[in-house]
Amino acid sequence: MTEPHGDAAARQQPTGQAGLLPTADGPAIRGALGALLRSARWLAAGAFLLMLVATGLGLLIPPLLGYLVDLVAEQRAADTIVLPVLLILGIAIGQGITTAVGLTRLARLGEGMLAELRERFVRRALHLPLERVEQAGSGDLTARVTNDVSMIADAVRNALPELARSGLTIVLTLIGMIVLDWRFAAVALVVAPIHVLTVRWYQRHAVPLYAAQRVATGAQQHQLLDTVGGAHTVRTFRLGTAHVDKVRTRSTRAMELMLRGVRLVTGFYNRLNFAELLGLSTVLITGFVLVQNGSATIGTATAAALYFHNLFNPINAALRLVDDAQVALASLARLVGVTELPPQPENTRTGQQLDPTIKVANVRHEYVPGQPVLRDIDLEVAAGQRVALVGASGAGKTTLAKLIAGIHAPSRGSITLGEVDLTERGPHAISDLVGLISQEVHVFAGPLADDLRLAKPKAADEELLAAVDQVGARDWVQALPDGLATVVGEGGHRLTVTQAQQLALARLILADPRIAILDEATADAGSAGARVLESAAANALAGRTALVVAHRLTQAAACDRIVVLDAGAIVETGTHDELVAADGRYARLWRAWSAPRPT
Ligand SMILES: Nc1ncnc2c1ncn2[C@@H]1O[C@H](COP(=O)(O)OP(=O)(O)OP(=O)(O)O)[C@@H](O)[C@H]1O
């Protein structure tokens, strides 16, 4: 009944929301749906055929009932009605069975397509450049994964089967009516313009409205995540009122759009009710006139009236579903918009074949345009070398580490890893050449062994234990209630920060990248944790080209070379001894670091 109007939805990017992820246009949605349908063509054909048979069988009942009415009107013998009654019974049973099987097939088709679409979306979303997600706000991505997927799931489970059934019933009933008596079919079309105009009116208003609703909900969720996620900072800087205002503005916008939706739906039903009233009156009057002048039997008029009854219910159902279909379509446009983003270039060479050198040339990076956090960075790390990045907090160490790991793309300049230019080929070109341990070490909920196998899915338990041993974690791992099978993370056995970092280092050993970048969270100097982690890191980095963001200067002193960053620029570089002798910034940092601490 409803033609996809994704084009209109695609245009729904209200001003001020320009950073949001893209929304697909009509042809892209049709293309994606076509591709999904093609991959399940036999299931689709089977479901369609069964629904066709079920609806066709249903159409035989009104003429048979009309025939029964004629038999009774002509006062025939009672036994003449046995056959038609049995036929009606058989048809009803046949229709019930074919409808049930057809709907099951249709459900399987819809769920399969939905699952495939969701997989594609997640696959694509996981590989989106981080800047793109940050620019859109993670709320946008979250809203698409949660709201939009559930809108489509609802449509697939409820609207799609009913829409298919209603569409088939309308078409076949109209054909049945023409065969029965064309005059009734002609009368049926009298109210059609009202339906057509109602649908047009509704679509004109609903598509932009629902797309705007999705955008407003995304913006509202993003704001809520921002405010709740940053609650600590919000409180520290007394930004509560400002944040509550922002949440209020976005919530009000979302609420206003919801209310406009309710008003629109009410108007839609008013028009449909009027059409139904008009249609029903016309049918009854026509039947009365035709039977009166003898040009139709009571049986035919009865069958025609029943056909009408058959027709108006699915028409209303189909038109009612326009609403769900529009909502689902706006959601679909937002899912397909992400799945259709151009894929990252494939990894053509494995990291193991590449020369593990790092070359950073003329790199500049800005998170906020016009505010560089790194400028004119030139750095080369030869194969097997271990280089430390040192500098005050905010100097840009983590940013440089992330650029080299391919997490962010530099605003300018080039980064070459193993002769592969990241800026040209994209970070996925070298994903298995480089491993990063960032400050946000995450322990995934589940058995410890699964957590380790993220880095090497096929590793045997012995291999996992060997890696755990190298990072000095064997003792505590074996002391866990179920050893490697112990459930850790959220809801399981809680690991200390040091233990989580040891696991991250063990994962690095298992993944075995030729270049390793270490940006561990700070551990107090001289603490047992720091000592354990330093020797674990030394083992994990053995034989690799390494860049270490040195939060403890003892880490830096153990490296082949030290690069000192200050306010986004490299200010010194050399070995520990050279830099101490030069008596510059590093020497000052070192003196401050190694000075006896008050106890
Ligand atoms: N995602 C981001 N968006 C905007 N600014 C950022 C972002 N990440 C870092 N910055 C800013 O970039 C500058 C450099 O930060 P970076 O984390 O690289 O420094 P760092 O030397 O690693 O500091 P630390 O030792 O405290 O981790 C800082 O001013 C920081 O506020």
Automatic annotation (TrEMBL):
It is a multi-pass membrane protein. SUPFAM superfamilies: ABC transporter transmembrane region, P-loop containing nucleoside triphosphate hydrolases. The chain crosses the membrane at residues 42-61, 81-103. PROSITE patterns: ABC_TM1F (PS50929), ABC_TRANSPORTER_2 (PS50893). Pfam families: ABC_membrane, ABC_tran. GO terms for molecular function: ABC-type oligopeptide transporter activity; ATP binding; ATP hydrolysis activity. Keywords: ATP-binding, Cell inner membrane, Cell membrane, Membrane, Nucleotide-binding, Transmembrane, Transmembrane helix, Transport. It is found in: Cell membrane. The keyword Lipid metabolism does not apply. SMART domains: AAA (SM00382). One of its GO terms (cellular component) is plasma membrane. Residues 358-592 form the ABC transporter domain. Residues 45-326 form the ABC transmembrane type-1 domain. Its main location: membrane. This is ATP-binding cassette subfamily C protein. It comes from Tamaricihabitans halophyticus.
